[in-house]
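It is worth pausing here to work through a concrete case rather than discussing structure prediction in the abstract. The textbook approach is simple: state the sequence, then state the predicted structure, then interpret. We follow exactly that order.
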Amino acid sequence: MVCPPHLPLYPMRTVVKLTNVGAHRLRFWESRYGLITPARDESGRRLYSAEQVDRIRQIAELVDKHGLSLLAIRGLIGNQAG
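Step two, the predicted structure:
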């Protein structure tokens, strides 16, 4: 996905600080389960929208506080990887 020029986008290091979710977890959720699909800049770095930051927080809460598996979460949110 190419960066949409009109949306504010956050680099991974900022998302890690905002969500307390490690970069390795974000990459895993993306590559293995397709739970998020960040845009990429011309250098290939991941960029996340505010909506994706909210989704990351929701996923982390479902895993950490409610004990849901990532497979179950993928089933709940469908293939809306946004």
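Step three, interpretation. The chain is about 50% helix and 10% strand. Residues 26 and 36 are 8 Å apart (CA to CA).
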